[in-house]
Design goal:
mainly alpha, about 75% helix, elongated
Length: about 250
């Protein structure tokens, strides 16, 4: 007796149930919004703006902190499968590992994008209100570009972490690599190595949050570079899921 393979829709539904029923993951998504909006508001209160002051980046300054919550969400959503034999249960229900991993990626990416877009909008409204007319403030066109870019960037970083976690099989290991990289290494390399640092995943993606940028990438080409890093991480994660023992 043979059984028909499980189609994508029920697999995606099952993965979505896992996401929305784990309180830590829901809290992680909420932290993306709260951290980004709070730090953006604090940046807008800073009166020390000088000649290099970028009002658009001031509005979205909190993304530098919200992205930590985004990568934690992506990492923990995948790492949960490697605890207590959960992956074996998932693959018993969905033998096609590629289909299962694709559903996991969509279940992570869609809510991350939705929360990211809401975060971008809230940060824009809060940041403009706090910033007022100082330094002219960003135009609404620039603000909308930044809000959309914010949502895309946060979703890409969550998926980047998800792919890396599928390789490392540990949220702790993923965060141990990405958090110091984002907060320290990327900043230091960016100040020392010139144009090459513009192609790091975080620096490239955050170009869309700046009013002006002197580097090689523009707002959307920068996001494309981040998307390429994310695609590479997800491809490595898919390979790991397919080739390694559950």
């Amino acid at each position: 007796m043979t059984f028909a393979p499980v189609t994508f829709a029920p697999v995606l539904h099952a993965e979505w149930i896992k996401i929305r029923t784990l309180r830590s993951l829901v809290a992680g998504l909420l932290a993306v919004l709260l951290a980004t909006a709070a730090f953006s508001a604090l940046a807008g209160l800073d009166d020390s703006g000088g000649q290099d002051f970028d009002p658009l980046f001031s509005v979205f300054f909190g993304v530098s902190f919200g992205q930590i919550a985004a990568i934690a969400f992506g990492a923990r959503a995948v790492a949960a499968e490697f605890r207590g034999g959960a992956l074996r249960v998932s693959l018993a229900a969905v033998p096609r590992r590629g289909r299962w991993f694709a559903a996991k990626v969509v279940a992570i990416g869609v809510p991350a994008l939705a929360v990211g877009l809401v975060t971008g909008l809230v940060s824009l409204l809060v940041g403009k209100a706090v910033l007022g007319t100082r330094a002219g403030g960003p135009t609404w066109g620039e603000g909308v570009r930044g809000a959309v870019g914010c949502g895309l960037y946060l979703a890409l970083m969550a998926l980047f972490a998800a792919g890396l976690t599928a390789v490392l099989r540990s949220a702790v290991a993923t965060l141990g690599i990405l958090v110091p990289f984002l907060l320290i290494v990327s900043f230091v390399i960016g100040g020392m190595s010139g144009g090459a640092a513009d192609f790091l995943p975080d620096r490239a993606g955050q170009v869309v949050l700046h009013e002006t940028w002197d580097g090689a990438l523009g707002p959307w080409t920068g996001l494309m570079v981040t998307a390429a890093w994310t695609a590479a991480a997800l491809a490595a994660g898919a390979w790991s899921v397919r080739r390694r023992d559950a």
